[in-house]
Structure formats: structure tokens, C-alpha cells
Amino acid sequence: MSFKSIGLPGWLIDSLHAMRITVPTPIQTATIPEILKGRDCIGGAKTGSGKTIAFAGPMLAKWAEDPCGVYGIVLTPTRELAMQIADQFAALGANINLKVALVIGGESMIEQSNKIKENPDFIIATPGRLAHIISEHPDDVNGFKRVKYLVLDEADRLLTDSFGEALSMCIDSLPSPSKRQTLLFTATVTDSVRSLKEKPIEEGKLPVFLHELDKIDDVVIPEKLYLGFILTPFMVKEAVLHNLLTSEDYEESSSIVFVNRSETAETLRRILRKLDIRVTSLHSQLPQQERTNSLQRFRAGAARVLVTTDLGSRGLDIPTVELVVNYDIPRDPDDYIHRVGRTARAERKGDAISFITPNDLTRVLAIEERIGRKMEEYKKITDNQVIKKSLKATSKAKVEARMDMDREGFNERSKMHKRRLEIEGEYERKRSH
């Protein structure tokens, strides 16, 4: 099977080859021909399977035949995913003067509104920011009435209550479903996603095409992915992490460390940096420019360790990650699946090691039941090693990191950020009643 045989034009195949993408993945092989036929599509496949090109490829192919104003809008739940998708569109259209507008929070809304007014070919956006522009600058989005494609990426998250109002406002500004194609892609085809297939077919429309490579209920963790755990007393987790990241197995590895809270991510970043590990972080308390810089540093190898909350658990495609550490066990077993999916991608090997404290046992059992596999104890990190090599150094670094954070007002900023979200939530609730 080739990109030519599934219907993509030569110029786009050349762009894919320039990106070292020469053979379509199963999700691309299944969905691209159907999208080119004009069908709405629901595509379900695990992260790293090529979903972005599965919708970008046919959209660009059709756009090249008849470019007209804003041709397609891609909505995705996080800024980081939006940036990554925009990068892929820009790379695919590098030789044809493709105009792509990125519309996300944390950037100038006036500048973004002006870009939309110029009718770019494609808009990649988070629903909240795009809805805000539609509400505040309705005259700037008149070009949306000619949109041919709407894409919901990570559709399972977008179709939850937290995005409901913003998503509705975005969709209401577009042509009716009979005059555009709607493409939903996700790693998790939930009931809310699947139910869209059952809606009545509008006159002149083909039936919705549903292709599900990996049903979330039957998810299989890749065989090449090692799942390990370390029994870790809460008070020495930082020391165990340092010992693991500097061990013979992983001292050169590109690693992602997942935590449950922004404060933990920031504290670990500072501790590891003081211990001479090339580290960066990604969490909600960082300004948007710092998030962008962090991802760029990690992708480029300038940092070999990324400490992140679940902001980094979905969709981010960094193929070289060799180790995932669950420093904190996630509350939802599906979040574990998405986290460990950052490694062992594209047939590569990878390791995922979880730190388990006595309070985590219930969560771990739920994860093992969910994935149908048992984690193995990783025994290469011993108490003596931790005490001898890491405990004193990490304890000192932790004290210094906390002092630095207090001096810079990190916790106060966190409280202000939390309060701002509460106020925004109150405002949205009042608007909805």
C-alpha cells in the first residue's frame, strides 16, 4: 500500500517523503480514501499511529484542487497539541505557500483575530480561545461560512461537558453538516463519539465512516513496552527518581516523568536541574511561551528529561522517548495508558516504570485490571544505592528549590491562577443559566 494508491496527489507525497514518511499507517490507509470520497469520518487509533496525517492529507489534497478562504478548522483540547498539529500542516504545505493560523490561549487575541480576518487556509485552535474570538469579534469570522472541513482531534475530550459551550459556539459559526465534512479522531472512541455515527443521515450525505483500530476496551499495551514498578516510600521519591535517571540503564535516555500536580512538576524540575540533569517541564502554571520553549528543548534533545502533568500525556509525538516514569500514579487507568503510550512508539522498545507508595495500591490494581497485564518489580534500584548516591544531594536540592519557589512567589501565583479559574467558572455557570 502506498500514499499514491490511497489517493493522495504527487506534491503531497513529495512533502511526506521530505518528512521521511513513505508508507501509510493502518489508520491512514483506512480513512484517507473514505474522506476523499466526501464521507464524514470517525477514526480511532492509539497515539503515535499517524492520525494527524490521516485527516490533514485528504484535506490538503482537496484544498489544492479548489482553495477558497478558510478551508478547514481543526479543534483540539490543548495548546500543545494545537501547536504540534500546526507544525505538521506547515511542514506538509511548506512548498505551496499554505497559510495556517494557530489560535490558542496565552497569545495575543488581537493578533489572532487579525490572522483569522485575513482568511488563512486552515485554522488550528483550542475551542475556548476560538469561541472567545467568535464572541468578541463576530465580524472577523465571516469567512467561516465557507469552511469545508471541521476536525475534532482528541474528540473524546472535546465532547465532554468542560468544552460543551465553547465547542457549540465554534460549530454554530460553521456551515451546516450537510455543507461540510466532519472528521473525528481520537485514541479513545467513547460512547459519545460513537453515537455520532447513529445520527440521521442528511440528504445528499454519505453514511459516517467509523474505523476503530484499537478499541479502548480491548487496548493492548505493546509487547515491546516493559512495565515496571518500584516500591517507593513517599519521603524519598525524589532520591529514587534521581537514582533511576542517573543509573546505568537510563543515564543517557530521553525520559518523561509524569506527576499529578503543577507544583510537583516545578519542584522536580528545580531539584533535577540543581543535580546537573538536563531537564525541562510542562505544566499549567507556565506561561505559554515557556511551555513552547520547554517542548522545543525536549524535542531537540537540549533537555533529556521532561517533567510534566497530564498536559503531556496525549497526542504529543516525540518518537525518541525511551523511558516513562509515573512519579505519581494517575487517578484514571486510561490516563496511565496514554502516559505510557509516549514510549515504545513506531515499533521501538521502551520502558515505563511507576513509583508505588502504600497509598497507591488500589489505583495500581485498577490499572492492571484495565490493561490486562501485571507490572514487574524493577529491582536494580536498591535502598543502599539511594542512600549512598542520591538521598543527601536530593534533600539539599529540595530545600533550595522550595526556598527559590517561595522567594519567587510560585505558590502565590498558583493560588491566584486557581482563583481566576474559579471566577471564570462562576461566570460561565451564570451565563449558562
TrEMBL record:
<feature type="compositionally biased region" description="Basic and acidic residues">
    <location>
        <begin position="404"/>
        <end position="414"/>
    </location>
</feature>
<keyword id="KW-0694">RNA-binding</keyword>
<dbReference type="InterPro" id="IPR000629">
    <property type="entry name" value="RNA-helicase_DEAD-box_CS"/>
</dbReference>
<dbReference type="InterPro" id="IPR011545">
    <property type="entry name" value="DEAD/DEAH_box_helicase_dom"/>
</dbReference>
<keyword id="KW-0347">Helicase</keyword>
<dbReference type="GO" id="GO:0003723">
    <property type="term" value="F:RNA binding"/>
</dbReference>
<dbReference type="Pfam" id="PF00270">
    <property type="entry name" value="DEAD"/>
</dbReference>
<keyword id="KW-0378">Hydrolase</keyword>
<keyword id="KW-0067">ATP-binding</keyword>
<comment type="similarity">
    <text>Belongs to the DEAD box helicase family.</text>
</comment>
<dbReference type="InterPro" id="IPR014001">
    <property type="entry name" value="Helicase_ATP-bd"/>
</dbReference>
<dbReference type="GO" id="GO:0005524">
    <property type="term" value="F:ATP binding"/>
</dbReference>
<dbReference type="GO" id="GO:0016787">
    <property type="term" value="F:hydrolase activity"/>
</dbReference>
<dbReference type="GO" id="GO:0003724">
    <property type="term" value="F:RNA helicase activity"/>
</dbReference>
<dbReference type="Pfam" id="PF00271">
    <property type="entry name" value="Helicase_C"/>
</dbReference>
<dbReference type="InterPro" id="IPR027417">
    <property type="entry name" value="P-loop_NTPase"/>
</dbReference>
<feature type="short sequence motif" description="Q motif">
    <location>
        <begin position="1"/>
        <end position="29"/>
    </location>
</feature>
<dbReference type="InterPro" id="IPR014014">
    <property type="entry name" value="RNA_helicase_DEAD_Q_motif"/>
</dbReference>
<keyword id="KW-0547">Nucleotide-binding</keyword>
<feature type="region of interest" description="Disordered">
    <location>
        <begin position="404"/>
        <end position="433"/>
    </location>
</feature>
<feature type="compositionally biased region" description="Basic and acidic residues">
    <location>
        <begin position="421"/>
        <end position="433"/>
    </location>
</feature>
<protein>
    <submittedName>
        <fullName>DEKNAAC101851</fullName>
    </submittedName>
</protein>
<feature type="domain" description="Helicase C-terminal">
    <location>
        <begin position="240"/>
        <end position="387"/>
    </location>
</feature>
<feature type="domain" description="Helicase ATP-binding">
    <location>
        <begin position="32"/>
        <end position="207"/>
    </location>
</feature>
<keyword id="KW-0690">Ribosome biogenesis</keyword>
<feature type="domain" description="DEAD-box RNA helicase Q">
    <location>
        <begin position="1"/>
        <end position="29"/>
    </location>
</feature>
<keyword id="KW-0698">rRNA processing</keyword>
<dbReference type="GO" id="GO:0005634">
    <property type="term" value="C:nucleus"/>
</dbReference>
<dbReference type="InterPro" id="IPR001650">
    <property type="entry name" value="Helicase_C-like"/>
</dbReference>
<dbReference type="GO" id="GO:0006364">
    <property type="term" value="P:rRNA processing"/>
</dbReference>
<dbReference type="GO" id="GO:0005829">
    <property type="term" value="C:cytosol"/>
</dbReference>
<dbReference type="InterPro" id="IPR050079">
    <property type="entry name" value="DEAD_box_RNA_helicase"/>
</dbReference>
<keyword id="KW-0539">Nucleus</keyword>
